[in-house]
Amino acid sequence: MKRFKTVDEFIDGCESWHEELKRLREILLSTELEETVKWGAPCYTYQGKNLVGIGAFKSYFGLWFFQGGLLSDPEGVLINAQDGKTKAMRQWRFNSKKEIKSRTIKAYVKEGIRLQIEGHEIKPERGKPLTVPPELKQALARNKTASIAFEGLSQGKQREYADYITDAKRDATKASRIEKIVPMIANGQGLNDKYR
Predict the structure, then answer these.
(1) 47: domain range?
(2) How far is residue 54's CA from residue 77's CA, in Å, rounded to a whole number?
(3) One Pfam annotation, family name (predicted)?
(4) Do residues 107 and 13 share a domain?
(5) Percent with pLDDT over 90 in the chain
(6) pTM of the shown model
(7) Does residue 96 share a domain with residue 26?
(8) pLDDT tens for residues 157-185?
(9) How far apart are CA 117 and CA 141, in angstroms?
(10) In terms of domains, do 21 and 107 share one?
(11) Where are the beta strands (DSSP E) in the chain?
(12) Beta pairing, strands 78-79 & 61-65
């Protein structure tokens, strides 16, 4: 996925949904939120904390509420795109411009701001044991430099690599991912260092 430096680049770089994304942006900019770009996509913050982001895919575009799991969701529009994995983030998917209701979006943003001011937050689980998948264990066993470097990484970076392999569904995907990451590990890099 391409990472953009500005919101305009993001909107122009999307294959479709240009007018719809501009409309979502316009609505969010009419609130108290500040616009920025994080992870190459538009992100809107309140007092420096992420509140909502904009995204687009082939079949839909939408909003991502970082603490959406706390929102009351009176319209029943929020979904957990990674059920069982994501605790806080929720998506609001749209399929057409006519589905965009400014007043409703602003109400969700207002509730999100209120919850943030009150200090409500779903925090990620800490202390969960690290499980290195067997495919990664085998690859590290064959590369002493990578194995030593892996042990020197923080547990968070080790977990990113482990999850990256575990999340692959097909064996071929796991193999290609391992081929990609072993040199990164050997160099002491974290999987997502270039985005930090």
Answers:
(1) 7-117
(2) 15
(3) OmdA
(4) yes
(5) 78
(6) 0.69
(7) yes
(8) 998 999 999 989 999 999 999 999 999 99
(9) 49
(10) yes
(11) 34-38, 41-46, 49-56, 61-65, 78-79, 90-94
(12) unpaired
